[in-house]
Amino acid sequence: MKRLRLDSNALHCDCEILWLADLLKSYARSGNAQAAATCEYPRRIQGRSVAAITPEELDCERPRITSEPQDADVTLGNTVFFTCRAEGNPKPEIIWLRNNRRRAHPSLCAAHGPSRPLPGLVLVSEAGQHGRDGYPRPG
């Protein structure tokens, strides 16, 4: 890419736009591409280059787990409940993992949300190590 111009867009500069700020900074360092993007909102940073904003001035907070799932032993055919809560700005999305891969049935997670118990009927195919990770929600 040689040129990226987003300066005619009314960009809302919040924590979820920091990935773009990092990208624009890398373009500026490399000198291989021109990029322009300007914040429209919030008003206190209106007119500033997206590349110049920092997480501190946007009050961004890295995700942190406030309630971790507990280990559970369960027998075949029974239901197990896991609860995980996280805080941060932006609000973190909790990803449930099985054997270090995204859970095979993400609809179970979505239906119950990140801060409610995650029910799951334990099947032979579901056996293994389960866990979670917290990520900022994509923008």
Automatic annotation (TrEMBL):
Keyword Transmembrane: no
Superkingdom as given in the UniProt entry: Eukaryota
SMART domains with a match to the protein in the record: LRRCT (SM00082)
Location of the Ig-like domain: 63-107
InterPro entries named in the record: Cys-rich_flank_reg_C, Ig-like_dom, Ig-like_dom_sf, Ig-like_fold, LRFN, LRR_dom_sf
Keyword entries, A-Z: Glycoprotein, Leucine-rich repeat, Repeat, Signal
The name this protein goes by in its record: Ig-like domain-containing protein
Organism encoding this protein: Eschrichtius robustus
Taxonomic lineage: Eukaryota, Metazoa, Chordata, Craniata, Vertebrata
